[in-house]
């Protein structure tokens, strides 16, 4: 018959308990020694009997092993405390941000005229003051933009006026060589006639007459255009 399973419970008989303690202690010390040798492990074993007698085993100096144990446990405790503290700080920061966000939302609704009933008289006065400040700043920025726009338009007007002056000066230069005879007809210098005789086209003469009309502010009508065309063609044919 095989051995029955031993029930793990306190041995009431003191002699039997002492014998079992001695046997198991010796076996435990042997196993600890074998483990330290086979696996190159640092092992410290501390045993107190029921009578308070100390038994110990260590593969190296037991004080060094105990100190190493304390440092390892302390570092883990510190890491756990640091992680927990960081988690708490993050949660508190989240609560602060959420509270600030909700406060900003309430303020925005108040600016829009919503949820004003719960506000006290002082809170309404403060809200009115903030609205006045906001309105003043808005008008100030609006005035700056309008002034900038006015300066931009003024600059454009100045450039257009300068361009107009240049065009007027150019027109005066073009008509400075034109003279009128006794009947107020436009005559040309001899150099211009030579240029005309050397190859001036009808279109050039049409353009010249229109410039003359513009210079003297003569209103151009359909009849005037036809007369100008006939006159130019006659001059060209006579020259040819």
TrEMBL record:
Instruction: Describe the location of the K-box domain by residue ranges.
Output: 87-178
User: What positions does the domain MADS-box occupy?
Assistant: 1-61
Q: Which GO terms describe its biological process?
A: positive regulation of transcription by RNA polymerase II
Per its UniProt record, what SUPFAM superfamilies does this chain match? SRF-like
Specify whether Transcription regulation is a keyword of the entry: yes
What the entry lists under CDD domains is as follows:
MADS_MEF2_like
Q: Which GO terms describe its molecular function?
A: DNA-binding transcription factor activity; protein dimerization activity; RNA polymerase II transcription regulatory region sequence-specific DNA binding
What stretches pass through the bilayer?
A: none
Alphabetized UniProt keyword annotations: Coiled coil, DNA-binding, Nucleus, Transcription, Transcription regulation
Pfam families assigned to the protein according to its UniProt record, in alphabetical order: K-box (PF01486), SRF-TF (PF00319)
Gene3D superfamilies associated with the record: Transcription factor, MADS-box
Name the predominant localization: nucleus
Q: Which residues form a coiled coil?
A: 143-173
Provide the protein's localization: Nucleus
Spell out the PANTHER family in the cross-references.
SERUM RESPONSE FACTOR HOMOLOG
Protein name from the UniProt record: MADS-box transcription factor 6
Question: Which organism is this entry from?
Answer: Cajanus cajan
Q: What is the lineage of its organism?
A: Eukaryota, Viridiplantae, Streptophyta, Embryophyta, Tracheophyta
């Amino acid at each position: 018959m095989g051995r029955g399973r031993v029930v793990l419970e306190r041995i009431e008989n003191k002699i039997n308990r002492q014998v079992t303690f001695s046997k198991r202690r010796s076996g435990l010390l042997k196993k600890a020694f074998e483990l330290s040798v086979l696996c190159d492990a640092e092992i410290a074993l501390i045993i107190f009997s029921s009578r308070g007698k100390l038994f110990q085993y260590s593969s190296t100096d037991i004080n060094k092993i105990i100190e190493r144990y304390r440092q390892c446990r302390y570092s883990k405790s510190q890491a756990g405390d640091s992680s927990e503290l960081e988690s708490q700080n993050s949660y508190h920061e989240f609560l602060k941000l959420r509270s600030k966000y909700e406060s900003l939302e309430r303020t925005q609704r108040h600016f829009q005229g919503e949820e004003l009933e719960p506000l006290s008289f002082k809170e309404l006065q403060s809200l009115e003051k903030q609205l006045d400040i906001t309105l003043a700043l808005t008008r100030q920025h609006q005035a700056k933009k309008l002034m900038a726009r006015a300066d931009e338009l003024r600059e454009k007007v100045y450039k257009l006026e300068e361009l107009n002056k240049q065009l007027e000066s150019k027109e005066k230069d073009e008509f400075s060589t034109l003279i009128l005879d006794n009947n107020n007809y436009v005559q040309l210098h001899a150099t211009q006639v030579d240029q005309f005789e050397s190859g001036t086209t009808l279109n050039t003469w049409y353009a010249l007459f229109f410039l003359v009309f513009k210079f003297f502010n003569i209103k151009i009508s359909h009849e005037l255009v036809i007369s100008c065309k006939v006159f130019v063609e006659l001059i060209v044919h006579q020259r040819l």
